[in-house]
Design brief:
The chain is about 40% helix and about 15% strand. By secondary structure, the chain is an alpha/beta fold. Strand 2 and strand 3 form a beta hairpin.
């Protein structure tokens, strides 16, 4: 069977959510959408004129840990129009129907036939976060099942047994979001959440921005097939609004807001200053981000004039184009953090504290990305990767004293060590009758008899690019 050649996929549950995406893609591409044969309520393809993209073949564009990287080459076409450069090729829009099962089934069918560069879920969502208003655009940095509860077996709330605690959003896609999109955790379930049935969801997921009935299923399917994914939606309803708030927006209007942001994200991905390659923050920007978030967590401020010049330049570079008041606030936080660490270097900052605070700051203060630029402050995972796989090393870089882990320098892991570590863990998981998950590996590697003997979970994921890549390497070697 010839594989379909699809550059990117946009999914939406309802016709009111899919139609504005199709209309916006037609507008920017100058092309007319065509019906596509798929086992879903409806599907369309939009192919910009002059791209030379056909309906069969294998797309060679991939997204790796560093971001979007296009390896395909295209021949110039004399019929190309100015709109050709806006989109990466054929875009497939699928109306999957409402619900987790329909979404997962549609993407499973599709991924068996093509490997798009990325998938974006568009449409409406219910707002959970305090202070959220209808019409707010949200995108997921992580996705969990709001009603999943296997805590009796040692899993965290929202986690499906044998799967990660949450599924990640693509950093490369998050970096391409329009500036007015809030980023954070998104939930999904099999019920439409209202004030009457929201239950303890806000307590169980204090950092969650929204909840819907499709995003997490799509995130899980994309994760299993190694396809970068984000959900980018507009809040049409509030799950238990505060007094005096408007709690409902016309679904068509909310879907239109989402559609415009989705198409802008696709364009940003394709036409950034360095297409397909996420720029790396320099060391000063990473240290500044840690200090900024540390200052927010500890609620300390200081004199911006006391901030070293290198860090001041890094903050100003990341705040370019923002209100100067934001820059001043950040520098005060950085100054306060430096003073607090000097006074007591034993204080600490956990990766969880960092990410929850960072998500709030990115959304509230507009510190999101522009074209070709990652959102700043970056996620803890980005910092860990840049710190050799260790959060403690990142903390040390800003002057914090940390408890010693395994000794560095004398112990080094080579390629065979990583494969052997994953293989040893898989065997242990099989003996215990458990699925070989990333979270399971982290717990196993931190057991007293394994600590320091095997690389950390973060180091394994960094080495192989992903946990699924680690498992594939083990299988390929058998």
């Amino acid at each position: 069977m010839a594989r379909l050649k699809i550059a990117a996929v946009v999914i939406a549950a309802m016709p009111e959510e899919a139609a504005p995406v199709v209309a916006e893609l037609e507008r920017v591409s100058g092309a007319t959408a065509e019906l596509f044969d798929a086992p879903v309520p409806a599907a369309w393809t939009i192919t910009p004129r002059g791209t030379g993209v056909g309906t069969t073949g294998v797309d060679t564009a991939v997204i790796g840990a560093a971001g979007i990287r296009t390896t395909a080459t295209r021949t110039a076409d004399a019929t190309a129009t100015p709109s050709t450069a806006l989109l990466p090729g054929t875009i497939l829009v699928m109306q999957t129907g409402i619900g987790l099962a329909g979404t997962a089934a549609a993407l499973g069918w599709l991924f068996a036939r093509t490997k798009p560069r990325f998938v974006i879920s568009a449409g409406t969502t219910g707002g959970l976060a305090k202070g959220m208003t209808v019409g707010t655009l949200v995108a997921g940095t992580s996705y969990a099942y709001g009603a999943a509860d296997a805590t009796a077996f040692g899993y965290v709330r929202g986690q499906i047994p044998g799967r990660p605690a949450s599924f990640p959003g693509s950093e490369a896609l998050l970096a391409a979001l329009p500036k007015d999109v809030q980023q954070g955790q998104m939930l999904s379930g099999d019920s439409f959440v209202t004030a009457k049935n929201v239950g303890d969801m806000r307590t169980a997921f204090p950092d969650a921005l929204s909840t819907d009935m499709e995003s997490t299923a799509a995130a899980q399917a994309a994760w299993q097939f190694g396809i970068p994914f984000i959900s980018l939606r507009s809040a049409s309803d509030l799950c238990g609004p505060e007094a005096g708030q408007d709690f409902h927006m016309d679904a068509a209007r909310a879907a239109e807001l989402s559609a415009r942001a989705v198409v802008e994200t696709i364009i940003n991905c394709h036409s950034g200053a360095t297409p397909g390659k996420s720029p790396r923050f320099d060391d000063a920007a990473l240290r500044a981000s840690l200090l900024y978030v540390f200052g927010e967590v500890k609620n300390v401020e200081g004199d911006p004039e006391a901030v070293p010049e290198e860090l001041t330049h890094a903050v100003r570079a990341q705040c370019r184009g923002l209100d100067v008041a934001h820059e001043a606030t950040i520098l005060r936080r950085v100054a306060g953090a430096l003073a607090a660490i000097t006074a007591d270097s034993t204080v600490t900052l956990t990766a969880k504290q960092y990410d929850s605070t960072r998500a709030r700051l990115v959304g509230a203060r507009g510190l999101a990305s522009g074209r070709g630029k990652l959102a700043w402050p970056p996620t803890s995972q980005t910092i860990i990767k840049r710190s050799g796989g260790y959060w403690n090393d990142a903390l040390t870089s800003i002057g914090l004293s940390v408890k010693s882990g395994r000794k560095r320098g004398g112990l080094r892991f080579d390629a065979a060590d990583y494969v052997n570590a994953v293989r040893a863990y898989v065997r242990a998981a099989n003996r215990a009758g458990r699925t070989a998950s990333f979270n399971g590996y982290q717990s196993w590697a931190h057991q007293p008899e394994n600590r320091g003997v095997f690389p950390s979970g973060a180091a394994v994921r960094q080495n192989f690019g992903s946990w699924s890549g680690a498992l594939s390497a083990v299988r390929d070697g058998e």
